[in-house]
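Explain the record.
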Amino acid sequence: MRKTYRARRRTTRRRSSTFYTVETLLQRQPKSLASTATYPAMMRAVQHTPGLLEVRFPRRCYTLLHNATITPENLPNLFRTYRLPNNEFFPLFLAARREYLQRREERSRARERYAMEVLRALPAPRLAAVKYLGALECELHPRQDCPVWNRSLFPSSRRSADRYARFNRDDWRRLFGTHIRRLCQRYRALSPMVGERVMAHLILEMVPAGVPPVPPSAAELAGAYRRLSLEHHPDRGGDAARFIELKRARDLLARGW
């Protein structure tokens, strides 16, 4: 039987047909770029160079400029590769972008330091719970990362950090419950039952002994329940709903795993 062969199609990478202009590049910059040291000179270069705003370049060049990844010594290569005019605008723009990005990074680090200070000042059970939930997600994530924790637990601004400082127990329980549900939705390895066990620990102001959690000792469970149940017992003026929640958490952890 004669074999027939089909000619293979040559696959070539399609080049992006999207082009940008200097005007588009400037329009997409934040207003705070105007406060950088080289911004006035950069804008003078635009004003004194007719046609500069219409200079076109592909997406790759736009990305290099916008991210300010080109060093001054490599500017001649940029001009040659993308046929850009050798104009002072480009080094001035890159200097402005680098200054802006550096300021943004410094602000981000300052917010992170402030958030860490607020977290460290939390009561020990709250801080331990926050740390545990981060460790739990790192164990579940294929690259040992914690994107859900970063997004929904770690305060992303001074305002959210200050809000944590004003949280009461009910606020923390709601926050932890929402976070655990998000973890169960994101990671199949974390079953709803395991999520409930983690939450039961946190309701009793206990930190699970392992990642994933393992059953607490009978003495540890009894001690945590006794302390909180006395505080919230209705006969002592406590909240009946909170007391029932504590009892359910204890019963869940006391059952066989």
About this structure: The two ends are 65 Å apart (CA to CA).
